[in-house]
Design a protein that fits this description.
Chain lengths: ~120, ~110
């Protein structure tokens, strides 16, 4: 089954304790992205990756790191989480056109609900 | 100004009626637009892509108005199961890799 998986689905942690949220897709998609969703603010892009070893900042990258060592995986790292990073996080992947000029429709993972105390 | 803006609603629609709502975008060079459906803070799921003037899929029709820079979504013969939040998305102006989502339009279909 074609899918995007995220782990963990739920996490409660404390300020400053490093954590990683994993994201994996089995559709051979080149493009992957992380979003956070907060009430009233909608989905905001954190980081995205157009291909292996290529990552770029989205709208709200502060406090986050990513890596893209393999095509299928795109982990999100919070080196020192803070309460304002409490949010619902979604990973997504999609194909791109051959010239990388247009992003296809994205497939989203089930989400990770993170609470930082 | 936000790059993608939506009326948050809610749009309360009687079952069987038609509802339409818009999404305005600021990047005039955008070539692709998307409507996603999201239920109760679950993952967004693609409803429809719009690459030219519009698209139609069953009861759902998306129209693109490039002159006024908005895309609309029309739902005909609304079902109770259409109750959801509808998100529109468009590429950012400074990078094709950056996707901007609207905050969503809530639709509530009532019996």
């Amino acid at each position: 089954e074609a899918q995007v998986t995220q782990n963990p689905r739920y996490l409660i942690t404390v300020t400053g304790k490093k954590l990683t949220v994993t994201c994996s897709q089995n559709m051979n998609h080149e493009y992957m992205s992380w979003y956070r969703q907060d009430p009233g603010l909608g989905l905001r892009q954190i980081y995205y990756s157009m291909n292996v070893e290529v990552t770029d900042k989205g709208d709200v990258p502060e406090g986050y790191k990513v890596s893209r060592k393999e095509k299928r995986n795109f982990p999100l790292i919070l080196e020192s989480p803070s309460p304002n990073q409490t949010s619902l996080y979604f990973c997504a992947s999609s194909l791109t056109y051959r010239d990388r000029a247009v992003i296809h429709e994205q497939f989203f993972g089930p989400g990770t609900r993170l609470t930082v105390l | 100004r936000k790059e993608v803006e939506q009326d948050p609603g809610p749009f309360n629609v009687p079952e069987g009626a038609t509802v339409a709502f818009n999404c305005t975008y600021s990047n005039s060079a955008s070539q692709s637009f998307f409507w996603y459906r999201q239920d109760c803070r679950k993952e967004p799921k693609l409803l429809m892509s719009v690459y030219s003037s519009g698209n139609e899929d069953g009861r759902f029709t998306a129209q693109l108005n490039r002159a006024s820079q908005y895309i609309s979504l029309l739902i005909r013969d609304s079902k109770l199961s259409d109750s959801a939040t509808y998100l529109c998305a468009a590429p950012r102006g400074d990078s094709w890799g950056k996707l901007q989502f609207g905050a969503g339009t809530q639709v509530v279909v009532t019996p």
